[in-house]
Amino acid sequence: MKSILLFFLLAWLTLGRALGYDFVVAQDGTGQFRTVQEAFNAVPDFRKKVTTIFIKKGIYKEKLIVAGSKNLVKLIGEDREKTVLTYDDYNQKKNIFGEDKGTSGSSSIYIYGGDFSAENLTFQNTSGPVGQAVAVWVAGDKARFKNCRFLGFQDTLYTYGYGSRQYYQDCYIEGTVDFIFGSSTAWFEGCTIFCKTSGFVTAASTPDTTRYGYVFNRCKITGNAPAGSFYLGRPWRPYAKTVFLNCELGKQIRPEGWDHWDKESNKQTARYAEYQSQGPGAAPKQRAAWSRQLPAAEAQQYTLATVLRGWDPTKE
Q1: How many CB atoms lie within 10 A of CB 250?
Q2: How many whole angstroms separate alpha carbon 174 and alpha carbon 182?
Q3: pTM of this prediction?
Q4: What is the pLDDT of residues 195-209, one digit of tens each?
Q5: Given 178, 208, 262, 312, which residue is catalytic?
Q6: CA 26 – CA 212 distance, rounded (Å)
Protein backbone atom coordinates (compact mmCIF):
# COMPACT_ATOMS: atom_id res chain seq x y z
CA MET A 1 0.00 0.00 0.00
CA LYS A 2 2.79 2.38 0.93
CA SER A 3 4.56 1.68 -2.34
CA ILE A 4 1.41 2.52 -4.30
CA LEU A 5 0.99 5.82 -2.46
CA LEU A 6 4.65 6.64 -3.04
CA PHE A 7 4.24 5.88 -6.73
CA PHE A 8 1.31 8.28 -7.07
CA LEU A 9 3.08 10.97 -5.06
CA LEU A 10 6.14 10.77 -7.30
CA ALA A 11 3.89 10.79 -10.38
CA TRP A 12 2.16 13.94 -9.15
CA LEU A 13 5.44 15.69 -8.44
CA THR A 14 6.74 14.70 -11.86
CA LEU A 15 3.61 16.11 -13.49
CA GLY A 16 4.00 19.50 -11.79
CA ARG A 17 7.72 19.79 -12.44
CA ALA A 18 7.26 18.81 -16.08
CA LEU A 19 5.11 21.91 -16.38
CA GLY A 20 7.69 24.03 -14.57
CA TYR A 21 5.88 24.08 -11.20
CA ASP A 22 6.11 22.13 -7.98
CA PHE A 23 2.34 21.66 -7.68
CA VAL A 24 -0.61 22.16 -10.02
CA VAL A 25 -4.13 22.85 -8.75
CA ALA A 26 -7.02 22.11 -11.11
CA GLN A 27 -10.68 21.59 -10.37
CA ASP A 28 -10.99 19.11 -13.26
CA GLY A 29 -8.43 16.74 -11.76
CA THR A 30 -5.62 17.44 -14.24
CA GLY A 31 -3.29 18.60 -11.45
CA GLN A 32 -2.04 17.07 -8.23
CA PHE A 33 -4.78 18.80 -6.23
CA ARG A 34 -8.33 19.95 -6.78
CA THR A 35 -8.27 22.58 -4.03
CA VAL A 36 -5.80 25.32 -3.21
CA GLN A 37 -5.71 24.48 0.50
CA GLU A 38 -4.57 20.93 -0.28
CA ALA A 39 -1.60 22.40 -2.14
CA PHE A 40 -0.80 24.73 0.77
CA ASN A 41 -0.90 21.79 3.17
CA ALA A 42 1.48 19.82 0.97
CA VAL A 43 4.22 22.46 1.13
CA PRO A 44 6.95 21.15 3.48
CA ASP A 45 7.19 23.10 6.72
CA PHE A 46 10.08 25.58 6.85
CA ARG A 47 11.28 24.68 3.36
CA LYS A 48 14.26 26.83 2.37
CA LYS A 49 13.43 26.92 -1.36
CA VAL A 50 10.49 28.43 -3.22
CA THR A 51 7.50 26.14 -3.69
CA THR A 52 5.68 27.18 -6.87
CA ILE A 53 1.96 26.41 -7.12
CA PHE A 54 0.23 26.86 -10.48
CA ILE A 55 -3.55 27.32 -10.23
CA LYS A 56 -5.61 26.61 -13.32
CA LYS A 57 -8.63 28.69 -14.25
CA GLY A 58 -11.64 28.31 -11.99
CA ILE A 59 -13.54 29.83 -9.08
CA TYR A 60 -12.09 28.30 -5.92
CA LYS A 61 -14.46 28.99 -3.05
CA GLU A 62 -12.27 28.15 -0.06
CA LYS A 63 -11.38 29.74 3.26
CA LEU A 64 -7.59 29.63 2.83
CA ILE A 65 -4.67 29.71 5.24
CA VAL A 66 -0.98 29.89 4.40
CA ALA A 67 0.45 28.76 7.73
CA GLY A 68 3.42 30.45 9.36
CA SER A 69 5.52 27.35 8.72
CA LYS A 70 4.88 27.57 4.96
CA ASN A 71 7.56 29.99 3.81
CA LEU A 72 8.50 30.92 0.24
CA VAL A 73 5.15 29.93 -1.27
CA LYS A 74 4.62 31.31 -4.78
CA LEU A 75 1.19 31.23 -6.47
CA ILE A 76 0.78 31.69 -10.20
CA GLY A 77 -2.68 31.87 -11.73
CA GLU A 78 -3.42 30.70 -15.26
CA ASP A 79 -5.51 33.81 -15.97
CA ARG A 80 -5.89 36.82 -13.68
CA GLU A 81 -9.56 37.36 -14.49
CA LYS A 82 -10.53 33.69 -14.45
CA THR A 83 -8.47 32.27 -11.60
CA VAL A 84 -10.39 33.39 -8.55
CA LEU A 85 -9.81 32.61 -4.86
CA THR A 86 -12.96 33.63 -3.04
CA TYR A 87 -15.10 33.34 0.08
CA ASP A 88 -18.06 35.18 1.61
CA ASP A 89 -17.50 35.76 5.34
CA TYR A 90 -18.08 39.18 6.91
CA ASN A 91 -17.78 40.92 10.27
CA GLN A 92 -21.22 40.17 11.69
CA LYS A 93 -21.56 36.68 10.26
CA LYS A 94 -21.83 34.20 13.10
CA ASN A 95 -19.35 31.47 13.92
CA ILE A 96 -20.37 28.06 15.30
CA PHE A 97 -20.83 29.61 18.77
CA GLY A 98 -23.18 32.32 17.53
CA GLU A 99 -20.51 35.02 17.90
CA ASP A 100 -19.56 37.63 15.30
CA LYS A 101 -16.61 36.53 13.19
CA GLY A 102 -15.21 40.05 13.37
CA THR A 103 -13.18 41.90 10.78
CA SER A 104 -10.11 39.66 11.04
CA GLY A 105 -12.29 36.56 11.05
CA SER A 106 -13.94 37.58 7.79
CA SER A 107 -10.98 37.17 5.43
CA SER A 108 -11.07 34.86 2.43
CA ILE A 109 -7.33 34.10 2.77
CA TYR A 110 -4.82 34.43 5.61
CA ILE A 111 -1.13 34.72 4.76
CA TYR A 112 1.12 34.05 7.75
CA GLY A 113 4.13 32.54 5.97
CA GLY A 114 7.04 34.80 5.04
CA ASP A 115 8.32 35.48 1.51
CA PHE A 116 4.90 34.80 0.00
CA SER A 117 4.23 35.86 -3.58
CA ALA A 118 1.29 35.74 -5.99
CA GLU A 119 0.88 36.55 -9.67
CA ASN A 120 -2.05 36.63 -12.11
CA LEU A 121 -4.75 35.88 -9.55
CA THR A 122 -7.98 37.36 -8.25
CA PHE A 123 -8.62 37.48 -4.49
CA GLN A 124 -12.23 38.16 -3.60
CA ASN A 125 -14.77 38.53 -0.84
CA THR A 126 -18.27 38.17 -2.29
CA SER A 127 -20.32 39.04 0.80
CA GLY A 128 -21.16 42.45 -0.67
CA PRO A 129 -21.88 45.78 1.06
CA VAL A 130 -22.56 44.30 4.49
CA GLY A 131 -19.82 46.02 6.49
CA GLN A 132 -16.28 44.80 7.02
CA ALA A 133 -15.47 41.87 4.74
CA VAL A 134 -11.80 41.18 4.07
CA ALA A 135 -10.56 39.54 0.86
CA VAL A 136 -6.87 39.25 1.84
CA TRP A 137 -5.25 39.35 5.30
CA VAL A 138 -1.45 39.52 5.23
CA ALA A 139 0.71 39.04 8.32
CA GLY A 140 3.88 37.50 6.89
CA ASP A 141 6.96 39.59 6.10
CA LYS A 142 8.08 40.23 2.52
CA ALA A 143 4.76 39.53 0.78
CA ARG A 144 4.69 40.32 -2.92
CA PHE A 145 1.74 40.57 -5.32
CA LYS A 146 2.05 41.17 -9.06
CA ASN A 147 -0.79 41.63 -11.54
CA CYS A 148 -3.42 40.55 -9.02
CA ARG A 149 -6.97 41.75 -8.37
CA PHE A 150 -8.44 42.39 -4.92
CA LEU A 151 -12.24 42.58 -5.03
CA GLY A 152 -14.58 43.63 -2.25
CA PHE A 153 -16.33 46.52 -0.54
CA GLN A 154 -15.39 47.64 2.97
CA ASP A 155 -11.95 46.52 4.24
CA THR A 156 -10.90 44.65 1.09
CA LEU A 157 -7.15 44.45 1.75
CA TYR A 158 -5.90 44.09 5.33
CA THR A 159 -2.15 44.69 5.61
CA TYR A 160 -2.26 43.23 9.08
CA GLY A 161 1.30 42.35 9.99
CA TYR A 162 3.08 44.56 12.50
CA GLY A 163 6.50 45.14 10.94
CA SER A 164 5.49 43.28 7.77
CA ARG A 165 6.82 44.58 4.44
CA GLN A 166 4.52 44.22 1.43
CA TYR A 167 4.77 45.08 -2.28
CA TYR A 168 1.96 45.39 -4.83
CA GLN A 169 2.84 45.84 -8.51
CA ASP A 170 0.37 46.44 -11.34
CA CYS A 171 -2.52 45.31 -9.14
CA TYR A 172 -6.20 46.29 -9.15
CA ILE A 173 -7.74 47.01 -5.74
CA GLU A 174 -11.37 48.03 -5.28
CA GLY A 175 -13.62 48.91 -2.38
CA THR A 176 -15.61 51.44 -0.42
CA VAL A 177 -14.73 52.30 3.20
CA ASP A 178 -11.11 51.89 4.38
CA PHE A 179 -10.51 49.31 1.71
CA ILE A 180 -6.72 49.37 2.11
CA PHE A 181 -5.96 49.30 5.84
CA GLY A 182 -3.62 48.04 8.53
CA SER A 183 -0.27 48.50 10.25
CA SER A 184 2.17 47.09 7.69
CA THR A 185 4.59 49.01 5.50
CA ALA A 186 3.37 48.59 1.93
CA TRP A 187 4.52 49.95 -1.44
CA PHE A 188 1.98 50.12 -4.29
CA GLU A 189 3.61 50.46 -7.72
CA GLY A 190 1.57 51.22 -10.84
CA CYS A 191 -1.66 49.97 -9.26
CA THR A 192 -5.24 50.87 -10.16
CA ILE A 193 -7.28 51.83 -7.10
CA PHE A 194 -11.01 51.68 -7.85
CA CYS A 195 -13.39 53.64 -5.61
CA LYS A 196 -16.98 52.36 -5.26
CA THR A 197 -19.95 54.25 -3.76
CA SER A 198 -18.15 56.55 -1.25
CA GLY A 199 -15.61 56.27 1.51
CA PHE A 200 -11.89 56.29 2.25
CA VAL A 201 -9.16 54.74 0.15
CA THR A 202 -6.85 54.03 3.09
CA ALA A 203 -7.00 53.62 6.85
CA ALA A 204 -3.42 53.06 7.97
CA SER A 205 -2.65 52.09 11.54
CA THR A 206 1.10 52.57 11.27
CA PRO A 207 2.86 52.11 14.65
CA ASP A 208 4.58 55.18 16.06
CA THR A 209 7.90 53.30 15.91
CA THR A 210 7.60 52.62 12.16
CA ARG A 211 8.92 55.28 9.80
CA TYR A 212 6.88 54.38 6.71
CA GLY A 213 3.32 53.18 6.23
CA TYR A 214 1.73 53.21 2.77
CA VAL A 215 3.48 54.53 -0.34
CA PHE A 216 1.57 54.76 -3.62
CA ASN A 217 3.88 55.40 -6.57
CA ARG A 218 2.57 56.12 -10.08
CA CYS A 219 -0.84 54.69 -9.22
CA LYS A 220 -4.20 55.59 -10.73
CA ILE A 221 -7.12 56.39 -8.42
CA THR A 222 -10.37 56.00 -10.31
CA GLY A 223 -13.82 54.43 -9.88
CA ASN A 224 -17.55 54.73 -10.41
CA ALA A 225 -18.17 56.65 -7.17
CA PRO A 226 -19.58 60.20 -7.46
CA ALA A 227 -17.26 63.18 -7.71
CA GLY A 228 -15.91 64.31 -4.35
CA SER A 229 -17.08 61.19 -2.48
CA PHE A 230 -13.73 59.77 -1.35
CA TYR A 231 -10.91 60.77 0.95
CA LEU A 232 -7.39 59.55 0.25
CA GLY A 233 -7.20 58.35 3.82
CA ARG A 234 -8.00 58.63 7.49
CA PRO A 235 -5.93 57.49 10.48
CA TRP A 236 -7.17 54.25 11.99
CA ARG A 237 -4.45 54.80 14.59
CA PRO A 238 -2.89 58.16 15.54
CA TYR A 239 0.47 57.67 13.77
CA ALA A 240 -0.90 56.64 10.39
CA LYS A 241 1.46 57.36 7.49
CA THR A 242 0.41 57.47 3.84
CA VAL A 243 2.07 59.13 0.83
CA PHE A 244 0.98 59.42 -2.81
CA LEU A 245 3.81 60.01 -5.29
CA ASN A 246 3.24 60.93 -8.95
CA CYS A 247 -0.30 59.53 -8.87
CA GLU A 248 -3.27 60.30 -11.08
CA LEU A 249 -6.25 61.15 -8.91
CA GLY A 250 -9.76 60.88 -10.32
CA LYS A 251 -12.70 63.16 -9.68
CA GLN A 252 -13.80 60.85 -6.86
CA ILE A 253 -11.23 62.43 -4.50
CA ARG A 254 -12.46 65.26 -2.27
CA PRO A 255 -10.58 68.58 -2.47
CA GLU A 256 -9.48 68.41 1.18
CA GLY A 257 -8.09 64.93 0.51
CA TRP A 258 -7.66 63.72 4.09
CA ASP A 259 -9.90 63.14 7.11
CA HIS A 260 -8.80 63.16 10.77
CA TRP A 261 -11.45 60.64 11.93
CA ASP A 262 -13.18 63.10 14.28
CA LYS A 263 -10.13 63.38 16.53
CA GLU A 264 -8.27 66.69 16.57
CA SER A 265 -5.07 65.18 18.00
CA ASN A 266 -4.72 62.99 14.87
CA LYS A 267 -3.85 66.14 12.96
CA GLN A 268 -0.61 66.38 14.93
CA THR A 269 0.38 62.71 14.77
CA ALA A 270 -0.75 61.40 11.36
CA ARG A 271 1.64 61.90 8.44
CA TYR A 272 -0.16 62.39 5.14
CA ALA A 273 1.56 63.76 2.06
CA GLU A 274 1.57 63.97 -1.75
CA TYR A 275 4.07 64.72 -4.46
CA GLN A 276 3.04 65.89 -7.92
CA SER A 277 -0.48 64.49 -7.88
CA GLN A 278 -2.24 64.91 -11.21
CA GLY A 279 -5.79 64.70 -12.51
CA PRO A 280 -9.12 66.20 -11.44
CA GLY A 281 -8.70 64.92 -7.88
CA ALA A 282 -5.41 66.75 -7.41
CA ALA A 283 -6.10 69.99 -5.50
CA PRO A 284 -2.93 70.90 -3.56
CA LYS A 285 -4.15 74.35 -2.56
CA GLN A 286 -7.38 72.94 -1.12
CA ARG A 287 -5.89 70.03 0.80
CA ALA A 288 -6.32 69.72 4.56
CA ALA A 289 -3.91 72.18 6.16
CA TRP A 290 -2.35 69.48 8.33
CA SER A 291 -1.30 67.38 5.30
CA ARG A 292 1.79 68.11 3.23
CA GLN A 293 2.87 68.64 -0.37
CA LEU A 294 6.39 67.23 -0.47
CA PRO A 295 9.30 69.16 -2.00
CA ALA A 296 11.27 67.24 -4.65
CA ALA A 297 14.26 66.61 -2.39
CA GLU A 298 12.09 64.97 0.26
CA ALA A 299 10.08 62.96 -2.27
CA GLN A 300 13.29 61.48 -3.64
CA GLN A 301 13.96 59.91 -0.26
CA TYR A 302 11.06 57.52 -0.87
CA THR A 303 12.81 54.59 -2.53
CA LEU A 304 12.04 50.88 -2.34
CA ALA A 305 15.23 50.21 -0.43
CA THR A 306 14.51 52.90 2.14
CA VAL A 307 10.80 52.26 2.63
CA LEU A 308 11.08 48.45 2.64
CA ARG A 309 14.20 48.44 4.84
CA GLY A 310 16.61 46.90 2.37
CA TRP A 311 14.25 44.36 0.80
CA ASP A 312 14.09 44.53 -3.01
CA PRO A 313 10.85 42.86 -4.11
CA THR A 314 11.69 43.30 -7.81
CA LYS A 315 14.35 40.57 -7.52
CA GLU A 316 13.40 36.92 -7.30
Answers
A1: 20
A2: 16
A3: 0.94
A4: 999 999 999 999 999
A5: 178
A6: 39
